[in-house]
Write a structure and sequence with these properties.
By secondary structure, this protein is α/β, with parallel strands linked by helices. 52% of the residues lie in helices and 14% in strands. A 6-stranded parallel sheet has the order 2-1-3-4-5-6, with helices on both faces. α6 packs antiparallel against α7, α7 crosses α9 and α8 crosses α9. The longest helix has 16 residues.
């Protein structure tokens, strides 16, 4: 089994060292650590890792340096998985990242505390999956507008939609909801039909379609 190689970028030294230690103990190989976006890009170009873990806000201005670096990495090395960590949920940042293709994710730093879920997220991204911060998903799914097509969904279908948007497979949704995979497939087909979204076997296209639709409803 191939050990995923990771490059970390976080200017908080204690958090960065803690993440590196966690990953080393959990089946990952930390190829390098960076405290700013420039050093991150240098490490990625040198090591060509399987996965990059980067904070949105990095020196010198602590605005969107990490996001800019993620965009550059995706352009230069599209096969590298990217997980961006943020202290605050931002729909715009999440949507911009997801538009970059497979193997990409956006997560709140607070999610790192749930070690098992965090490591599962990293593995999913390293394997080409897309992961969205659950708080953003719930914000989008919970948005109510006049003539909102989400009103056509049942409570269970909205729950399935939220898990779909997090990037979970039908099997993963079935495990979370304690139902059969066949039941989930029926709910997914119903959700896609009610939202007038095309059926597809491509998990990433499914995530993008659902999130893009919901994000547009926010306006």
């Amino acid at each position: 089994m191939t050990v995923p190689r990771v490059v970390l970028a976080e200017d908080d030294v204690l958090l960065r060292e803690g993440l590196a230690s966690l990953l080393d103990r959990s089946g990952f190989s930390v190829a390098g650590q960076a405290g700013d976006a420039t050093a991150l890009l240098d490490l990625v170009r040198e090591h060509h890792p399987d996965l990059v873990l980067v904070d949105v806000r990095m020196p010198p201005t602590h605005t969107v340096e990490g996001l800019d670096a993620a965009r550059t990495i995706r352009e230069e090395l599209p096969s590298v998985g990217i997980l961006v960590l943020s202290a605050h949920a931002d729909v715009g940042h999440a949507m911009e990242l997801l538009a970059g293709g497979r193997g990409i994710g956006y997560l709140l730093k607070s999610r790192v505390a749930d070690v098992g879920e965090f490591l599962d997220t990293l593995r999913r991204i390293a394997n080409g999956g897309s992961v969205v911060e659950p708080a953003l998903v719930q914000e989008l799914v919970g948005a109510r507008h006049r003539n909102d097509p989400l009103a056509a969904l049942s409570a269970r279908e909205r729950e399935v939609l939220g898990l779909m948007a997090e990037g979970r497979s039908n099997a993963g949704i079935a495990r979370r909801l304690w139902v059969t995979e066949g039941t989930v497939e029926k709910h997914v087909r119903s959700v896609l039909a009610k939202l007038d979204l095309p059926e597809t076997t491509d998990d990433h296209r499914r995530v993008l379609a659902v999130l893009t639709y919901l994000d547009n409803r926010q306006g």
